[in-house]
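> forwarded from #structure-qc
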């Protein structure tokens, strides 16, 4: 599933092409792409047609495009395999194309924004923008203190200037759950999925099954610092691509997979101590860690 770095790469790629553009036509090819939209495909097409895109914003794994007066927004979630692609106007339909927005930009001319999704777990929806409880910007990419109602329950991510380190440490102190489970909880800290949780825990030398409340303050601070470092590095390298399901808006893959230290490296030597990386089942996923560097205390 695309995580914070992948969605931010998509947002940054979309922004120059869509901000200030007017949506001139909307084509819904598959209504499964609108599972989060409260109306019909006809209402979706009607409301978007003629609207102007005011910004491109992200919180965690959610992306949204505020429209006109910034009281409504087009909200996107990429799910497992969703892609937001920029194409030339009139380009042939992409494989797995679900929705197409034809736009006209004052500088870039006519373009198409394509939402493609092989596994159809992603979605688009038009949603109301609500004030943020803390009065800070709703997400990265725009200063307005508003967030879509469908995203309001999602916590800020560790790279957000308004992210509260104190609240994060307090959440750890209250939780008996394994620290990896807490990192994956999007209501505690957003944008972290399986890949970046494993990488951050490896970097911080923390066993994934350690109860969150057992982490010393120093360890919790070190873990948060490593989360930020891992996410920043992944952003620089364009995200993580293991197959063609995650690409940026131009169809290019990210290359952070070459920098992974734990995730997906079962049986390979730990880059730090040489001990083989192990893989264990974790709910419906897997955890990868070094049994020597990340001993459970």
């Amino acid at each position: 599933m695309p995580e914070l770095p992948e969605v931010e790469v998509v947002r940054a790629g979309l922004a120059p092409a869509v901000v200030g553009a007017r949506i001139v036509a909307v084509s819904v090819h598959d209504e499964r792409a609108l599972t989060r939209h409260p109306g019909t495909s006809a209402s979706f097409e009607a409301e978007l047609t003629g609207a102007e895109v005011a910004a491109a914003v992200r919180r965690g794994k959610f992306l949204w495009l505020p429209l006109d007066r910034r009281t409504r927004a087009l909200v996107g979630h990429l799910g497992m395999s969703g892609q937001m692609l920029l194409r030339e106007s009139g380009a042939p339909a992409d494989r797995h194309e679900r929705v197409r927005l034809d736009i006209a930009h004052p500088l870039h001319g006519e373009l198409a924004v394509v939402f493609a999704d092989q596994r159809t777990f992603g979605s688009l929806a038009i949603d109301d923008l609500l004030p943020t409880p803390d009065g800070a910007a709703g997400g990265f990419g725009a200063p307005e203190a508003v967030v879509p109602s469908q995203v309001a329950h999602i916590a800020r991510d560790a790279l957000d200037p308004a992210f509260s380190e104190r609240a994060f440490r307090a959440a750890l102190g209250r939780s008996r759950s394994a620290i990896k489970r807490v990192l994956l909880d999007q209501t505690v800290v957003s944008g972290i999925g399986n890949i970046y949780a494993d990488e951050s825990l490896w970097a911080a030398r923390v066993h994934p099954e350690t109860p969150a409340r057992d982490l010393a303050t120093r360890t919790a601070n070190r873990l948060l610092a490593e989360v930020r470092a891992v996410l920043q590095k992944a952003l620089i390298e364009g995200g993580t691509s293991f197959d063609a399901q995650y690409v940026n808006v131009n169809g290019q893959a990210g290359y952070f997979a070459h920098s992974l230290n734990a995730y997906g490296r079962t049986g390979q030597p730990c880059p730090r101590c040489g001990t083989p990386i192990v893989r264990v089942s974790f709910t419906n996923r897997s955890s990868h860690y070094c049994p020597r560097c990340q001993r459970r205390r």
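QC bot note: DSSP finds six helices and eleven strands in the chain. The first helix runs from residue 4 to 18.
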